[in-house]
């Protein structure tokens, strides 16, 4: 397994006291809380479509200064199909007494995920969706210093719906990939190479948490 990313890297390389950070697929908000502790006065936007994760987020983030937007970020403005995850055995890492498992839901249909993680099941549901490019149009946001993305196989849809914003406004992009060669956790999900091919003006800074079938890639915009 590749090493875990140290969020202190961003503190060392971003001189702003109030960077703008997007946490896409925020789940329980734990990454948001890490960034809130890391910077003096960050502007944090958290995006989450699964109502169960939203409830957990609100329970533990409470009134901390983080803006929660209850939508998926994909290539559709409207309602989309969503494969909602559940497990009889798995529980949230930080809050192991929560009686649900909403950490693996995706806009993509599960494929090898069913054999790699046989204790996780999926149920087809529908959730609200917004393109990043649409959402940001009326917002006064010039630069997104950190785009932290965990959308469980929906990387293609996220990138297509936010292509202009990502290329013009995003400095650091930390994004999960769920496909390696022909081992894809979700149907037709992007590999790390496909993500890089989609973003030719970004340079690769590292691969993290690589587990054979999935991992995370850190990229930086060469034009900013």
Mean pLDDT: 94
The value of Rg in angstroms is 16 Å
Major sheet: arrangement of strands: 3-2-1-7-8-12-11
Tally of DSSP helical segments? 8
Q: Helices and strands: which structural class? A: alpha/beta
User: Could you tell me the strand content as a percent range?
Assistant: 25-35%
Helix content: 10-25%
Please describe the biggest sheet, giving its number of strands, its sense, and whether it closes into a barrel: 7 strands, mixed
Question: Separation of termini?
Answer: 31 Å
Shape: globular
Which residues form runs of ≥5 with pLDDT under 50? none
| Strand/helix succession | HEHEHEEEHEHEHHEEEHEE
The number of distinct β-strands equals 12
What does this structure look like?
By secondary structure, this protein is an alpha/beta fold. The protein contains eight helices and twelve strands. The protein is globular, with a radius of gyration of 16 Å. 43% of the residues are buried.
Which labels suit this protein?
alpha/beta; 31% strand; 25% helix; 8 helices; 224 residues; 7-stranded mixed sheet; 12 strands; 3-stranded mixed sheet
């Amino acid at each position: 397994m590749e090493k875990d990313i140290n969020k202190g890297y961003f503190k060392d390389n971003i001189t702003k006291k109030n960077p703008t950070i997007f946490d896409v697929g925020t789940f329980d908000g734990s990454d948001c809380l890490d960034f809130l502790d890391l910077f003096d006065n960050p502007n944090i936007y958290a995006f989450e479509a699964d109502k169960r994760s939203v409830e957990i987020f609100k329970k533990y983030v409470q009134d901390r200064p983080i803006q929660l937007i209850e939508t998926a970020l994909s290539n559709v403005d409207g309602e989309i199909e969503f494969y909602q995850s559940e497990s009889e055995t798995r529980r949230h890492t930080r809050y192991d007494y929560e009686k649900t498992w909403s950490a693996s839901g995706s806009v993509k249909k599960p494929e090898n995920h069913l054999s790699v993680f046989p204790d996780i099941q999926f149920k087809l549901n529908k959730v609200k969706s917004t393109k990043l490019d649409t959402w940001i149009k009326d917002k006064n946001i010039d630069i997104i210093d950190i785009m932290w993305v965990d959308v469980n196989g929906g990387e293609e849809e996220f990138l297509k719906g936010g292509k202009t914003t990502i290329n013009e406004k995003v400095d650091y992009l930390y994004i999960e990939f769920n496909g390696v060669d022909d081992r894809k956790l979700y149907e037709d999900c992007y590999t790390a190479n496909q993500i890089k091919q989609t973003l030719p003006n970004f340079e690769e800074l590292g691969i993290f948490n690589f587990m054979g079938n999935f991992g995370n890639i850190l990229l930086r915009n060469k034009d900013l």
